[in-house]
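Take a specimen:
=====
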Amino acid sequence: MEPGEVDIWVGESSRDLRLHQAVQVEAPQVFLPLHAHSTVQEWLDHPLGRDVLEPVMTPFLENAGDESEAAFYRSMPLVKVTLLAPATLTPAKLEELLEAVRS
């Protein structure tokens, strides 16, 4: 479960919800292992991934035409960036990034 506010509703049916309470859930943030098919955004959200990917991807994302184009790139699996923008991320550099987050 992710940390944050959760709404709890209680009733006899989904059409008769009489009680409602919002509760704050405290939970440690869990990061899944990164791999070549993790999205650029997943890498940027991950503490280890962000440290190694930000220097590579920030100039590329800053040169995106607008926010929707940058959002498109952030939703892309990192391995696809090697095909779309080989000057930004080569397959060899991707392997270096993967090794960095594995250690």
